[in-house]
Amino acid sequence: MKGYRMPDIHLDSTDRAILTRLQRDGRIANVDLAEQISLSPSSCLRRTKALEAQGVIAGYRAELDRDRLGLGLTVFVELKAARHSREVSRQVEAELTAIPAVVACHLVSGDADFFVEAVVPSLAVYEEVLLDHILAIEGVTSVRSSFALRTVLSRGPLPLDASLSKGTRSS
Q1: For residue 124, what is the domain's CATH number?
Q2: In angstroms, how far is CA 105 from the centroid of its own chain?
Q3: Which residues contact residue 170 at a Cβ distance below 8 angstroms, ignoring those fewer than 6 apart?
Q4: Distance between CA 86 and CA 79 in Å, rounded?
């Protein structure tokens, strides 16, 4: 396939320990991180900087409480496109990602072409987003919305240890 290549990143157990800990607390001081994974601070910093340079660590950000910010309604939207082409897909992607309420967007297989997660303060605001933005996208032929009743897990860390590849979850 054009443009596809296997990742050339090799993570040893120390790299995985750094990444696992940083996923739980991206603000941890390097000296504390180094102590928790039994490395010298200089070695830990060097490895962390290398993971950043390789793009394994894509960035750091604050996690915000949606409810406390008045964004308590999470909507999952399945979209179908009129035609399946790279051009239509790029146009729909560009317009979806320009909508501030959209916090995640995936091109998917199955009954829908796109799966979107939107966060809004109320059903009335979602109606505006749906009618004024999503349904206004040229090429969108069908929309189906589902509403989250309760969030069970929304920001789990990526599974980096070997036991998780066998279908088990550890804490």
Answers
A1: 3.30.70.920
A2: 9
A3: 161, 163, 164
A4: 16
